Amino acid sequence: xxxxxxxxxSKLTDFQVLSFDVYSTLIDEPGGMFIGxxxxxxxFPSGNPYQNNxxxxxxxxxxxxxxxxxxxxxxxxxxxxPLAYKAFAASLNLPxxxxxxxxxxxxxxxxxxxxxxxxxxxxxxxxxxxxxxLSNIDNDSIARTISGPLAGVDFDLVLTAQEIGSYKPDxxxxxxLVRRIKEELGIEKERILHxxxxxxxxxxxxxxxxxxxxxxxxxxxxxxxxxxKEKGEVNFTWxxxxxxxMAEAVEKET
Length: 254
What we know:
The chain is of the alpha/beta class. It folds into 2 domains: about 1-30 and about 115-254, 3-Layer(aba) Sandwich (Rossmann fold), CATH 3.40.50.1000; about 30-110, DNA polymerase, domain 1 (Orthogonal Bundle), CATH 1.10.150. It is built from 13 helices and 7 strands. Strands 1-7-6-5-2-3-4 form a 7-stranded mixed beta sheet, with helices on both faces. Strand 5 (about 190-195), helix 11 (about 200-210) and strand 6 (about 210-215) form a beta-alpha-beta unit. Helix 5 (about 75-90) packs across helix 6 (about 100-105). It is globular and about 55 Å long. The model has no long low-confidence stretch (mean pLDDT about 95). Keywords: Hydrolase. Pfam families: Hydrolase.
């Protein structure tokens, strides 16, 4: 993969800041979340599709996660996940999990692993760019992620949903991103390259904000992106399958 828009003359090296979605772009959120759901899923008989189909299971679970993000935008993410965990259990007609079990799931975020290519890619990209996080997360969990799976990477700015008071795709999060980068780093929106896996939470609002963007397509969502492009809702200039591939493309431009 690489550049997918011939109408945009920009080069990757034209930008000064990379802003990142963290979970699912840098951190293996699907893998970490699915492992965290195992105490619940183990209550099903062997062979149940929720035990064996990660995509199917997470798409169901994330409905409750997103409903809570919309209805309670000021709720911290590590407090939101236990509520989603219990709502998910109820939807499956499983016994209500204990509070300790639900809280343990919410506390697992900081231990979700980085994708194998992430740390080396970020260290390479740091040679050229300022690195900024924009994440639907709470402050405690992101601190654990930075000191754990992302140890060795120096971020210039870390912006969380807890700090902002809303969750992406709310445009307030992106307005806050642009404002803070201007205030803290002295760099304008036109020199920010938003880099993210999520189409709905990142690529759609990035287009609405008039921001340049890179899609990190870790899951092969060809059909979904085709539909969004037909509606004119996404307009990313580059598409890569990993952060490692993006870092290699930047190196080739230098």
